[in-house]
Amino acid sequence: MEKKVVLKVENLVKYFPIKAGVFRRTVGWVKAVDGVSFEVYEGETLGLVGESGCGKTTVGMTLLRLYEPTSGRIIVEGEDTTHYFMPYLKARSYVKKTYIRRFENLKKEKGEDALKELEEPDKKYYKIFLEGGKRALYEHLLSNLPEKRRAFRRELQIVFQDPYSSLDPRMRIKNIVAEGIAAHKLADKERINDAVASILEDVGIIPGHMFRYPHEFSGGQRQRIGIARALALQPKVVIADEAVAALDVSIRSQIINLMEELQERHKLTYIFISHDLSVIRHVSDRIAVMYLGKIVELAPKKELFENPLHPYTVSLMSAIPIPDPEKRNKKRIILKGDVPSPINPPSGCRFHTRCPVAKDICKEKEPPLVEVKPGHFVACHFPGSLKWSM
Amino acid sequence: MEKQPILRVENLKTYFYTEDGVVKAVDGVTFDLYEGETLGIVGESGSGKSVTSLSIMRLLDEKGKIVDGKIIFKGKNLLELSEAEMRKIRGNEIAMIFQEPMVALNPVYTIGDQIMEAIMLHQNVGESKAREIAIDLLRKVGIPEPEKRVDQYPHQLSGGMRQRAMIAMALSCRPSILIADEPTTALDVTIQAQILDLMKELQKEYGMALIMITHDMGVIAEMADRVVVMYAGRVVEYGEVHEIFKKPRHPYTYGLLSSIPRLDVEQEKLKSIPGTVPDPLSFPSGCKFHPRCEFAQERCKNEEPELVEVEPGHFSRCFFWEKLKELEVK
Prior knowledge:
The complex is a heterodimer.
Chain A: E1 5-20, E2 25-41, E3 45-49, H1 56-63, E4 71-76, E5 79-80, H2 88-110, H3 114-117, H4 122-142, H5 145-155, E6 156-159, H6 173-183, H7 192-202, H8 219-231, E7 237-241, H9 249-266, E8 269-274, H10 277-283, E9 286-291, E10 294-300, H11 301-306, H12 311-319, H13 360-364, E11 370-373, E12 376-378
Parallel strand pairs in A: 3-8, 3-9, 6-7, 7-8
Antiparallel strand pairs in A: 1-2, 1-4, 4-5, 9-10, 10-12, 11-12
Helix pairs in contact in A: 2-4, 6-7, 6-8, 7-8, 8-9
Chain B: E1 5-18, E2 21-34, E3 38-42, H1 49-57, E4 64-73, E5 76-77, H2 83-89, E6 94-97, H3 101-104, H4 111-123, H5 127-140, H6 146-149, H7 159-171, E7 177-181, H8 189-206, E8 209-214, H9 217-223, E9 226-231, E10 234-240, H10 241-246, H11 251-258, H12 298-302, E11 308-311, E12 314-316, H13 321-329
Parallel strand pairs in B: 3-8, 3-9, 6-7, 7-8
Antiparallel strand pairs in B: 1-2, 1-4, 4-5, 9-10, 10-12, 11-12
């Protein structure tokens, strides 16, 4: 059965300028995310794992358009959404650059035959272009942007790491949860309280507590409220950015279980961002491992753990202390040094400075992310050369 | 052979007198630390694990008072020493490293200055000699180019390097006990692996006893010889590391162990401990864990269990520890 792609990211890049001097000139760029592509299927959990500075959070924030991407495409449910939050003229020039020019050439060269080689959503857009010319395509992509933005804001939601700073201390939790419902008119005014009550009940908060303030709740309960706020909008995709990292061990498992139950009940799609590979293993269907702004390996969970191919993935697995004293004398791979700065990432393969199996070519040539087995992608010149078993 | 403990904490009670009431952060904690061993103290936030270590060092702020108990180090009760006598022990015989090296290090002095300060204070050597020792130590903890690093400020080092510098400082006087309070919590896993490795190596070389305080069961399994499990200011279980992990005899330890996601095995659904960590201002009556305990009965609400020896060297604070025995058979 073909799985439905809800979210597709193509070559996503996000650079942050470094400004210095009296005139705040840009003197360099932090290359936080540097060419990341992946797909997320409906109803699955994609885990994004990596150490600090690998760009996992920036990916999440850029997907939500809390950061504007530097370049790349973000496709939600088969529609390009990249230009949604651009000023109108910029959006128009984006459409012109990305589609119109390319399609004009295609039409000249191949005419209708080009349809066969195009993928979605390009195929759909090309059809519109063939039928109605560029005006129709502009119309399709640029009309009703405010409306599209609203829908986008509803469909993608986030749960943050810190349940203390992500809830407004001066708002009752009823209002925290109801704010989005009201803004998107998902319930009549008179029925908002009922809607809030049922969502709170869903996440395990007593509905009778809806008039309390965040400080009256514990960390775990606050995280439940944060989840309720996200679910209130009936989103398609929920991005959980280190959603359990700040919680105590005994509370963490409650929240993980809750999120899994909610996923089943509401057919949610999750992007789970975490530095903790053990948590990622538990929650994810597929896992993407990031290092310095790139995806180095992406595979279904089982495949990744049985057959990790990138030396970084292998080192990461071996570095994690296993809660079993019998396994303490296992030999582990200890990486040398620190993660290099994303301002001046190493040449070639970005991992070569710490890689135990790096060769000369790794310094010079950057390995592309290639599919070595169905669904298993890896960016390494010598995949599988670092061996280690759990 | 009966070993003599190098440190004995006996019925330690540390209370904080706050405006909202008395916080019994540590309430009757007892354990021994033997020469050269690693003792892990594990617990969640508010369990009192950090306050226990600060009490040993006598580094509590003015609100915190040690109201009862003894801390016996090499035959002396540290709680009876004067501040001047304590200063000779602190940093010299018992050293400590903290979670956040950026906060623990002084930002306006170089790494070298801070290490040399301790050396000159405790070892009666001159400045140039102290500098030599400092450079040696930095090399020993795996800091590249120690001659250059010694003149750098904390902000010029990465998190892992700062923690190494902290370790160098702690080791400068060859302490017989090193207390490490969440030393790797703020670090990335690949850096954590480096630091844990380094600590093991140095412990072997220096022959010191290590108290490892953490919330991470993985780190405990990796490092500790014996484990103290704390909950709500009390020791709820205490024993040899294999015993604790294989045969937990307290429902809290059992719950904790079964609620962690594992990297090495595939789990269907995680077990979880219901409820939340209790508020230290109003701990529950009876057994502090009873509102969250799946084995709790009427008795647990009214009466607090004692720490009993369930097997030689293995203690549990639970009336119904035998029930966990049956569970394991299943």
